[in-house]
């Protein structure tokens, strides 16, 4: 946004929390000129890509170490270690995720970050339009989703691009394959539908729901949940087309 960092202290607590949640990567972070040029093309923000450090670090770590992990995002993690990692990112520590960090802890941290954003990544304001894209003809759905993505704040848009790119890569490793030596490589079993089921409710929702509300799901809520999953699945499967300007 157009807000200078100096003005953060003047904000009330809710606004400063929002800025904390969207802690941005600095533009000058050791990037080559070539990378910067590429980033500008991918972003609707003409200055630089605004992806929270935590999101980018988690995605990079999981792309490097977790693509073959069966049931990634479904297996439990250590709450204590996840909280510790989260606190380090919150304090602005330059956290380096390496192979010592559990894949499941990093996966849980990414989910938590998206779940706890003050306003969901796809924003409450656009919740109904995103869901209503399912009422359109199939060939109109993608172009409408693309227009809705253009309405997101630049930070949300850039973060969504990074996330969908990552989820698409995870889904690409879902099936078992055979390597060049003829050895079977186990897939992670996380198809775009499985990933949309896990991430959809964190990216697109009207209001924070308590666990109690979830346990007594009405049929309307179940239908809504199915719609959220369908929209997010479509976005994972078509993310390249959606971000093609």
The pLDDT mean sits at 82
Q: How many individual helices? A: 12
Radius of gyration: 18 Å
CATH architecture identity:
Orthogonal Bundle
CATH topology type:
Phosphatidylinositol 3-kinase, Chain A
Bulk shape? globular
CATH homologous superfamily assignment: Rho GTPase activation protein
Portion of residues in helices?
Answer: 55-70%
Low-confidence stretches: 1-12, 23-31, 37-41
Number of domains: 1
Number of strands: 2
What series of H and E elements makes up the topology? HHHHHHHHEEHHHH
Q: Mind telling me the CATH class?
A: Mainly Alpha
Give the strand order of the largest sheet, numbering strands 1, 2, ... along the chain.
1-2
Biggest pleated sheet:
2 strands, antiparallel
Keywords: GTPase activation
InterPro entries: ARHGAP6_RhoGAP (IPR041852), Rho_GTPase_activation_prot (IPR008936), RHOGAP6/36 (IPR037863), RhoGAP_dom (IPR000198)
GO molecular function: GTPase activator activity
Protein name: Rho GTPase-activating protein 6
């Amino acid at each position: 946004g157009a807000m200078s960092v100096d003005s953060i202290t003047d904000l009330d607590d809710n606004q400063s929390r929002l800025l904390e949640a969207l802690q941005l990567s600095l533009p000058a972070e050791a990037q080559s000129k070539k990378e910067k040029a590429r980033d500008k093309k991918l972003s609707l923000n003409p200055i630089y890509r605004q992806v929270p450090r935590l999101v980018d670090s988690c995605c990079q770590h999981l792309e490097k170490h977790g693509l073959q992990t069966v049931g990634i995002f479904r297996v439990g993690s250590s709450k204590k270690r996840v909280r510790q990692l989260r606190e380090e990112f919150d304090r602005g520590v330059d956290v380096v995720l390496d192979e010592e960090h559990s894949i499941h802890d990093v996966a849980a941290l990414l989910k938590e970050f998206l779940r706890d954003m003050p306003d969901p990544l796809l924003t409450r304001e656009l919740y109904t339009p995103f869901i209503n894209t399912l009422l359109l003809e199939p060939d109109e759905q993608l172009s409408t989703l693309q227009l809705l993505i253009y309405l997101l704040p630049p930070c949300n848009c850039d973060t969504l691009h990074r996330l969908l790119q990552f989820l698409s890569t995870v889904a690409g490793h879902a099936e078992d394959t055979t390597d060049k030596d003829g050895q079977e490589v186990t897939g992670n079993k996380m198809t775009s539908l499985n990933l949309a089921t896990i991430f959809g409710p964190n990216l697109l929702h009207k209001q924070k729901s308590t666990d109690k509300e979830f346990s007594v799901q009405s049929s309307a809520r179940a239908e809504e949940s199915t719609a959220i999953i369908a929209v997010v699945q479509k976005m994972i499967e078509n993310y390249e087309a959606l971000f093609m300007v």
